[in-house]
C-alpha cells in the first residue's frame, strides 16, 4: 500500500491562454493527482486528507474511487472545497491563484495509524504550507519516517501561498532527515535555494530533479547522477505533470521492491534510467491532454509492463 497525504481541491482549468479564458472545473491538487495516477497505474493506494461535504468534495472522492484508491480514511467537514484558478501562457505552462480561507482540507489532523501494509507515504504541495493542517502533515511525515517507512516529498512550490519564504525554506530543510526520495522541479529548486548534493547530505538517499521537456535527473548519495531526455509531445498544458512523475516513480520503485533506502541505493544506472524513462513517458501523456489526466498502465505501452522496469 502507498499512502498519499495532502490536499484535494478543484482546479478551474482555462480552455485557452490568457487571464480571461473560459474556466472548466476539474479534480485536482498535487497529492490528489498523485493518488489518482498511482491508482490508474495499478498500485494499491490510499488517500489521507480532509474533504468537504459539498458537491465538489463528493466529486473528489468519486474520482479517487474510480481510480481504485482507498478513501476510507479521508476526513470530512462542512467547510467549502479549496479552489485553484489556473492561467496558461502560450506554451501551455500553468500559473495558479488559490482560494483557501476557511476551506476543509487545511483542517486535516494526523491519523493515529496508517493502513496495514503501508510501505510508503507521499507528501507535498499546499498541504505543507497552510496551517493548521501543515503541522499535522509534518507530524505524519516524521512519524512515518520514524517507523522506517519510505517517505516521498514533492514541495511543488506555490509561492503566492507562502507568506514568509525564508521560514518555509528553513522548514523544508528540517523535513529532509525524514525524507527518502525528494522530487522537485528545476523551478522549485531555484526558489528553495541549495543544490541536490546539499539536500542529499541532509537526509534523502535520492533527489530527482525534473526539467520539463528537457527530462529528469536523479542524484544519489553515492555521488552518482543519471539523466534521461523528456518525451516529445504536443503539449496541451502541464497541469498534473509533476504529480504524474511522483506516481510513476513510486509505482516503479514498488514494482522493483525498492521502497527502502537500502534497495533504493542498489538500483544502479540501468535501474534508475529505466525508472526515469517510465516517469518521463507518463508525464508526457499527461501533458498531451487538458487538465490533470494521468495515464492508465495500458497507455504506457512496453514501459508500463512491470517486467520492463
Please describe what this structure looks like.
The chain has 309 residues and is an alpha/beta fold. It is built from nine helices and 14 strands. The strands form three sheets. It has an eight-stranded mixed β-sheet, with helices on both faces. A four-stranded mixed β-sheet has the order 3-2-7-8. A two-stranded parallel sheet has the order 5-6. The two termini are 19 Å apart.
Content of β-strand: 15-25%
Per DSSP, the total helix count is: 9
Q: Going across the major beta sheet, what is the strand order?
A: 4-1-9-10-11-12-13-14
Radius of gyration: 18 Å
Q: What separation lies between the terminal Cα atoms?
A: 19 Å
Mean pLDDT: 90
Query: Biggest β-sheet: count, sense, barrel?
Result: 8 strands, mixed
Low-confidence stretches: 303-309
- Total number of β-strand segments? 14
Share in helix: 25-40%
Structural class: alpha/beta
H/E series: EEEHEEHEEEEHEHEHHEEEHHH
Question: What form results from the Cα inertia axes?
Answer: globular
